[in-house]
Structure formats: C-alpha cells, structure tokens
Amino acid sequence: xxxxxxxxMLGVWLLMSPFIFRHPADAAHLWTNDLAxxxxxxxxxxxxxxxxxxxxxxxxxxxGVWLIGFGRFNGTPPLEPALQNELIVGLLICMLxxxxxxxxxxxxxxxxxxxxxxxxxxxxxx
Length: 126
Prior knowledge:
Mean pLDDT: 86
Radius of gyration: 21 Å
Shape: elongated
Largest sheet: none
Order of helices and strands: HHHHH
Number of helices: 5
Strand content: under 5%
C-alpha cells in the first residue's frame, strides 16, 4: 500500500501549497481547491486501509482528473506556478491511483498455497 502513502503525502503537499506559492487573498478559488482537495486526497488514501473501503483509491482517479482540469482551464498559458502544481499533482495522483493496494505483496496464488506438499530439497541426485 505504498502508493496510498504517497497519495497521502501529496494531499499534505496540496494543503501546504497555498502558503508555498503564496496565493493572493482574493483568489479564494485557489485556496478552496487546494485545501479541499488536499483533505479529500488524505481521506481517500488513508480510507483505503479500512477493509470496507479498499476500493476508495479508485475515487482518487476522479480527483486527479479534477486537478488536471482545474490547473489547465483556470489560467491562460503560460500557467502560473500554482496551476502548474495542480497539473503535476493531478498527473501523479492519476498514475498512483491505478496501483492496487496489494501491489507489494506476492501474487494471491502464492499467498494461498497450502503447505500440504513438502518443499523439494536439493539432494544432489538427478
């Protein structure tokens, strides 16, 4: 579930980004988007650890597409750094959200294998 940890860290990054990129006080849409989406990223990524919400990471794909659209269509090229941040984080979230929760574990067949058959040992004979 390493991908969920990185998604949560990207949520924290979005929570900090209004202060890092110094959004103007009158740009409430930038503040609201960064803070709301950052909280949503953390909620969905950490929610994937709960057994009843193991598929919550698929909703992150929608969040990633939202961030890409928000970053692209809220400004005119060349985009300001805050909107470029939205694009990059959105692309990363889309990429990470399709990674299964059990990506770092062995395949299911290996995990479910019964130990009823003894392991073959090398005896030195053919």
